[in-house]
Design brief:
Number of helices of chain A: 4
CATH topology of the largest domain in chain B: Arc Repressor Mutant, subunit A
Shape of chain A: extended
Order of helices and strands of chain B: HHHHHHHHH
Helix content of chain A: 10-25%
Distance between the termini of chain B: 49 Å
Oligomer: heterodimer
Largest sheet of chain B: none
Helix content of chain B: 55-70%
Largest sheet of chain A: 8 strands, mixed
Distance between the termini of chain A: 52 Å
Number of strands of chain B: 0
Number of helices of chain B: 9
Strand content of chain B: under 5%
CATH architecture of the largest domain in chain B: Orthogonal Bundle
Radius of gyration of chain A: 24 Å
Radius of gyration of chain B: 17 Å
Largest interface: A-B, 40 and 44 residues
Number of domains of chain A: 2
Order of helices and strands of chain A: HHHEEEEEEEEEEEEEEHEEEEEEEEEE
Chain lengths: 396, 173
């Protein structure tokens, strides 16, 4: 019977194919489909625009336009409320210069604020997108671009400036430096109309803050004061911290993930991930969202590695993994995969629990955190090692 | 590649979408949404066959998403807009098509994935993000409904992967 039913279904497919054979789908709907694809790519790649476009793109990119320091004011040890920017729309438009489709490798001059000189940006997008950067002091480096949004975010060495460059689907390069729109000159020295950034003081609201954190020593815990950017240790290395598409995450885990209230965007959902390698004890027991210094692991002897993603706002951990975050691949909200290191995937917003006292994490930043601790014998531990790294370009 | 898929593979994709949706008009909308979803992320496909397969895999999810959004906007009975089975339809394919059209969207999608795409229950569960038990129930319900519509005894149980289907033309002979 099953075979008969399959035959009937295939017959129906063939009949449908014949029924639609004379239809000029491309002529009737091709323009509309292509237009929607372009708009969606644009919305994904930029945070500029109105209405639904902002709703799509701003989630992934809005935090990148905030100046370092001013956007994430440090919380005081006393636990006073942290200032938190409101959802005031970003000033627009941004300075834009068009990169011709065949202009991969073309250099662009970017005038830094406050007379700090000129930075040279050279987007290369033949294969994996990268941006070659030359600073006024002669420093050269290359920074990777996000393969989905083609956004490049980096902190200039020895500088407090956060640089955001977005190459949209039309080939327009938009640059923001330290939260201020930068003037971009194209490869032949033509200067596009300068756009004056909106300098209106940004109103603030009370986003709350975590409980006083003087005694918190673990980045896995609420209230921990996080040094901005990253912290490294030779014993423990974060080899990857960013985000993947659900397809990529599924391939990594050997399964299929269905977007369900994703962390980053409901339109083009991405999966925050972090991969960590324990250099001293490869293959050590590990746990997703597990603080290796947690008292519940006292009975273990040997090294233990933990990895998680937390939300940081105002330099303080404001959301941590839920206690019931599952530690098996394919589970929701979190998944654990061992693949040349320990990889944690954050599949769902339910992964996070907001810390007590925090009323909003809307402007938080995602941080990868990892820890390792050696248990010499029962109840005897060496000091825990913690490392962390900001997931660039992803807001909480 | 998007242009090539639309020009060369639209009939096949529309036929598949029509099976999933049970409605030719909705098949057009679902295919457009699936194309937008698949080509908005700068994916590269080495061959149009790969692109077609990718779009086809997206169609069931796009359809289920549309149903979810529709339910949010309007809780009216969705089955009311679906065509009724007409006694004058005597062709087997038309019977199957109309029988599928009487099923609820999720049940119909499960039936297509099971009996056209040959996916297993766990694979269907992964694809649609539903529990395996739910899929089994949908398949059982779908088989029972089809058997009733097609005038056949309901010989399929949730633990089996077969469903009886006989053309009503044969029955009338």
């Amino acid at each position: 019977m099953s075979a008969e039913f399959r035959d009937a279904m295939r017959g129906q497919f063939a009949a449908g194919e014949q029924r639609f054979a004379d239809e000029e789908f491309a002529e009737q709907f091709g323009g509309a489909v292509a237009g929607r694809v372009k708009r969606r790519r644009f919305a994904t790649n930029t945070a500029v625009g109105g209405g639904s476009v902002v709703a799509i793109g701003a989630i992934a990119l809005a935090a990148m336009y905030l100046p370092r320091g001013s956007s994430t004011p440090a919380a005081t040890p006393s636990g006073s409320a942290a200032a938190c920017v409101t959802e005031t729309p970003a000033p627009d438009p941004y300075p834009v210069v068009t990169v011709p489709p065949d202009a991969s490798g073309t250099s662009f001059e970017v005038e830094l604020p406050d007379g700090a000189g000129t930075m040279i940006l050279t987007p290369v997008y033949d294969d994996a997108p990268v941006m070659e950067v030359s600073l006024p002091d002669g420093t050269h480096f290359t920074t990777p671009g996000d393969p989905v949004s083609l956004a490049y975010v980096f902190i200039a060495p020895e500088s407090p400036l956060v640089v955001v460059a977005v190459l949209d689907f039309k080939g327009d390069l938009q640059v923001t430096v330290g939260g201020v729109d930068a003037v971009v000159k194209d490869g032949v020295g033509h200067e596009p109309p300068r756009i004056v950034a909106d300098t209106t003081p940004v109103p603030v609201v009370d986003c709350g803050t975590a409980e006083p954190s003087d005694t918190v020593a673990s980045p896995f815990e609420c209230g921990f004061h996080m040094d901005p950017g990253y912290r490294t240790d030779s014993a423990l290395t974060i080899t990857g911290a960013g985000y993947k598409t659900y397809d990529e995450a599924g391939r990594l885990a050997g399964t299929t993930f269905i977007p369900n209230d994703p962390v980053v965007s409901n339109i083009d959902p991405l999966v925050p991930y972090v991969t960590v390698v324990n250099n001293e004890v490869p293959g050590a027991p590990a746990g997703m969202a597990l603080d290796p210094a947690d008292d519940t692991v006292d009975s273990l002897v040997g090294a233990l590695t933990g990895v998680a993603v937390v939300k940081v706002q105002g330099g303080v951990v404001v959301a941590v993994p839920s206690d019931d975050a599952p530690d098996v691949a394919g589970g929701t909200p979190g998944a654990l995969v061992v693949n040349q290191g320990l990889t944690a995937l954050v599949l769902d917003k339910a992964y996070f629990t907001t810390c007590p006292g925090v009323t909003s994490t809307a402007y938080s930043t995602l941080y990868a955190v990892a820890g390792s601790q050696t248990h010499v014998r029962q109840q005897a531990k060496e000091p825990a090692i913690y490392v962390w790294q900001q997931l660039r370009g992803i807001t909480g | 590649m998007l242009e090539q898929v639309m020009r060369e593979r639209a009939p096949r994709l529309l036929a598949y979408a029509a099976m999933v949706t049970g409605n030719d008009a909705e098949a057009h909308d679902v295919l457009q949404d699936a194309l937008v979803k698949c080509f908005s992320k700068r994916r590269t496909f080495e061959h149009v066959n790969a692109a077609e397969a990718y779009v086809r895999r997206a169609i069931p999810n796009v359809y289920i998403d549309r149903i979810r959004r529709r339910r949010t906007r309007d809780t009216a009975d969705q089955r009311s807009s679906q065509p009724e089975l007409r006694e004058s339809d005597i062709d087997t394919q038309m019977d199957v098509q109309r029988a599928l059209a009487t099923l609820s969207p999720r049940v119909r999608t499960c039936m297509v994935l099971r009996f056209y795409d040959d996916l297993t229950v766990p694979q269907i569960a992964h694809t649609l993000g539903l529990a395996e038990g739910t899929i089994k129930r949908y398949l059982s319900d779908g088989a029972a409904s089809l058997a009733a519509v097609l005038g056949m005894p309901d010989a399929w149980s949730g633990d089996e992967d077969t469903v009886p289907v006989v053309s009503s033309r044969k029955e009338r002979r």
